[in-house]
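Lecture 7 notes: from sequence to structure.
We start with the chain below.
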Amino acid sequence: MSKVAIVGAYNSKFGNFVKKNRETGEVSDLQSIYELMLEAGRGALADAGIEASAIGGVWVGSCAPGLFAEQEHIAAFAAEIDPEGLRYKRMTRCEDACASGSVALYDAVYAVESGRIDAALVLGVEKMNLLDTKGVTHALATCSYWPEEGVKGITFPALFAEYAKGYRDQYKLGDELLAKMLASAAALCYRNGLENPLAHFGKGGPSDKLALTSAQAILDLPAEKNPMIAEPLRLHDCSLVTDGAAGLVIVRKDHPLTKKGRAVRIAGIGHAAERIALSSRKNMHELLAAKEAARQAYAEAKLSAKDIDIAEVHDCFTINQLLCTEALGLAADGKAGYDYMDGRFTHADRAAVNLSGGLKAKGHPVGATGVSMHALLYKQLVGEPIGQAHGKAPRVGISLNVGGSAATNCVTVLVRD
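Predicted structure tokens for the same chain:
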């Protein structure tokens, strides 16, 4: 059982922080990848009340900064958060597609557990919107299995559409029923996103203006407002292209830096990889590696799904929200869609899902997503919720962050002792 705790966290505003001239094609960067890193790092340290000099190392989750922002060597820039306190400290970038942030956290945890350092700063950052749609699609496609998928123009919506079709066929769901299930999951995230001041799609955003707070409202959208992207997934089944950053400070639980009432223990970690090519997977109706990661995390934490108060799951696509909910055991196999239609997983439910708005509404700056999940769970667990609060004081939280087409699967159980 891990003896490492999160003692501070920060999440930047998520959004599209560029200005594009449609006539000239000129792109102006309104908040650079460097500014986002500085904000998250300084914010996490301030939240923890820890001087930068106490940090033994920095781990940075970033998926494709070279493609997105022309900055491949990004970890060393973390020294600029506090040059006097952080210069000469070990700094490492971690990449595992959309799970880069969680893997950065895990590597930092292992360093603290080893005794080599007492405290670590974990950052997640991505600046995606400098590229046009074609550029973003290509950058993300490099996280697929390129020889069979990316090189043939198979996009991530198309990859997860295979899971949607597999789920539909396995559980003998009609197209209309599946669409309602997916819309119910999206609507929950849109509702929660309206309460999150940091969300990409928050108050005043497209989901608010279109009043997409119910499944029916999404289903009633005309085709031009919700076009088919990869059958059966439509536009509002897809997460957002987002700029943003998040940060965490972790320490040994018994260290003097740990502040009473502000420490959340990393009680269990599960990290399992699936074969990367979809062609090698025979089962396309469940996330087998995510289930294995959940088994590992629950076993280490000595807890189970019935103990979970709050969860952040990786809804890169609405079908993955259903699959992740089932992988964590919060819904029975084949039943998550029915549960979402029945109104489960709200802030008033026993186990609330994606109170942040999830990737669907909060946004999905891919390298930052895993750190953001942990940061916002931490805030909920210490009684400082950002956005929609749980209906009771939650004690146990869980995150499921996946990378690529659910090839990398990271599950973390967090406990407020």
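Points to note: The mean pLDDT is 97. The longest strand covers residues 264-273.
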